[in-house]
Amino acid sequence: MAASVLFACGLNEQKLPKFVHISEESNCDGSFLFSCILGQRLRISNAGTVLVCLQHNYQHYFHAGMRLGYNVNIFLDKTLNVVDPLTDMAEKGMASKWLQDERQVTTLLLDGIRDYISASAAQRISTTILVDNLAILLNLGATKEEIIQLCHELAELPKQYKNLAVITKLSNCDLYAPIDNCVAKLGTLRIRATQLKSGVSRDVDGKLLIERELAANSVKEAGEELEALQNGGYELEQMRKEVLYKVNDRNIKIINPGELGVKV
Amino acid sequence: MSSFRKRHVQKPVPGTRTSPQTGQIITSSGNPSFDVIFGGGLPVGSICLIEEDKYVTFSKVLAKYFIAEGVVSGQSVLLGSLDDDPQELMRKLPKPLNDDEVEIEKSTEQENGEFSQNGLRIAWRYNDLPPVNSEQIPSKIGHHFNLMEHMDKNLLDFVDTLLWNGNSYVNSDEVDDDYDCGLGDEDNVFSAIESNTESKDDTDQNTTSSSSGSNISCKEVDLEQERINAAAALLSGNSNETLRIQNATKLQVDAVQPPIILGQKQNNNCEKIFNNSKYQRFLKLVQSFAKEEKFSSSTLVYRSLCRICITSLGSPLWYDEEFPKNILKFLTVLRGIVRNSVSVCFITMPMHLISKYDESLVPKIRNLVDYAIELESFSGSEHETNNAFKEYNGLIHLHKITAVNTLTAYMPETSDLAFKLRRKKFVIEKLHLPPEMQEDIKENMQTFSCSGGSSASATSMDF
């Protein structure tokens, strides 16, 4: 179902990179990536997940998950915790805490995530935080600096908790390039969903540009910073890959550029 | 203990059906050929943005279709506009056609088609082939309307409508058609309705705690059904039904609780969220309207669909110093409200003006809606005189189609679409260029002149 796209992005393993950033260009929908990752994390026994629904409400992830063959409701409030500001705004209207103070939006979000993690992270074999998406925080009044600060704080969480991974998404990344780059620098894996330059195609929905820093992560884990420095700091190795994708009704097809039979 | 559990089957919301393509609950936009773009209709919980044409002619027609469909289907309608008078718009809704009229309409069109086919000059043998209609019509879900005539005013009495023009609102349940609160001040508007909220709260308590309350909700179900039947009867032109309809409406006024107009008292204490109070006032209204129990997706007893229509959102009347910030926040909150209730939202926006204000706002706004469709009108543009487009009034550009509550969205067969406004209806067709006739070319050749005369072919020349 979603194995091919996760494999292509390097997210198919039980242990994820500590910070992953997904960028979405204007007029490009990368929501399917979150549904795929969510399904993969929920399938791991005793792995906790915190989902921040800003782009869609919880119902969307439920329905999309059903298409991919998993039922989110089974895991809700067990291994899955949801922070859903959209629903809160719909229920409480102008009295919603998310609308009261623009300066507090990112703080509220971080507090919500921390509450869930502190309560359950110790009991879980791993925890994943999924933030979909940061651009909505800008719409709610958060500043560029506050978003970057939030991401810095999120990137600090894996140092406090063992086996914790953070995955963020930013739409309209071409318009918010400074934020996008600053947030992407915090992690070792960056996925960029873009449109085809040649226009709309029936066989392909878009392109995924995957950038991964291979050596940096392993150096930090093994504690061999000194060795890396002795080598002139050239341990960093970047892997860059491009794949095409097609989102079908119940699965996602990954196509390599130049593959036969694809009309782009 | 038995593991048997009674299955609760939810009644379908009137005027909706399940899409065979995506499995979502969809509702008609009011125009059958427009529904084709969405795969049969708009998914419930989605926001459709129409990027207005320059003279706001065609986008207004689509908005009228959207509202008219809600009225005919017995759904609740919330209409907000600063540029147009909502009451005027409601008065000018197109008249629904009954089945017989639709059949007559179709047969007339077929006859016209045959007439034009007789004059086919390319290849006579194509005359034997069945006629090809480029206007796509999905399986029946919505209604057909006649733009030449206005809707019967009585039909409007059977639906909950809430109209907002920036300063005041008119609620069909509480007042007569021509009633206007006439309150300009925000606080006044909401303090005026607060008493209704309290009474609503009281009745809500009754419904949950006492048996009499449950009777009310059952009665509501029957009455709503009766109301739809009555509207359908009126549509079919049966005058005997009129008395029954009036009784139904009267009963409904007695039994059905007035809708909540305002949230809790604590709302009064909340800070100013928007610098421009119009956004805040309208959002409060939308939130209170969509929060009604019948629009709740979890309700098993009776559900209804809420149609929210906002025309010319983002026009200069909405402008202020922090317009980009306000409009983005407004759409974000609106998105939350629409997603969490059984409602569908239709917005028209003058994107050509917004792009002049701030170019980067356009993709940001498109990101907050589920469908972004641009109407490019030929009037006033160089395409107006172009022979290739002489059949059409404009082009349709599909900028965004999002998968709402599913993995992938329905994609129309083609994105090359054009529209034309006929006398009685608005039609969207696949764009196809007319055949190039031998005689036409000769005519053009004869009128061609290097001196730059008044002929159509010469006007496009640079020298």
Automatic annotation (TrEMBL), chain A:
Per the UniProt record, one Pfam family is ELP6
Quick one: which pathway?
A: tRNA modification; 5-methoxycarbonylmethyl-2-thiouridine-tRNA biosynthesis
Which family does the UniProt entry place this protein in? Answer: Belongs to the ELP6 family.
Q: How is this protein named in the record?
A: Elongator complex protein 6
Q: Which gene encodes it?
A: LOC105229912
TrEMBL record, chain B:
Where in this protein does the record put region Disordered? 1-24, 194-216
Q: Where is the composition biased (Low complexity)?
A: 205-216
Give the UniProt subcellular location, in the record's own words: Cytoplasm; Nucleus
Indicate, by first and last residue, each region the UniProt record lists as having compositional bias (Basic residues): 1-10
The record's keywords, sorted A to Z, are: Cytoplasm, Nucleus, tRNA processing
**Entries under InterPro entries matching the protein:** Elongator_complex_protein_4, P-loop_NTPase
Where on the tree of life does the source sit, at the highest rank? Eukaryota
Q: Which Pfam families match?
A: PAXNEB (PF05625)
Question: Could you say which protein family the record assigns here?
Answer: Belongs to the ELP4 family.
Question: According to its UniProt record, in which pathway does this protein act?
Answer: tRNA modification; 5-methoxycarbonylmethyl-2-thiouridine-tRNA biosynthesis
Protein's recorded name? Elongator complex protein 4
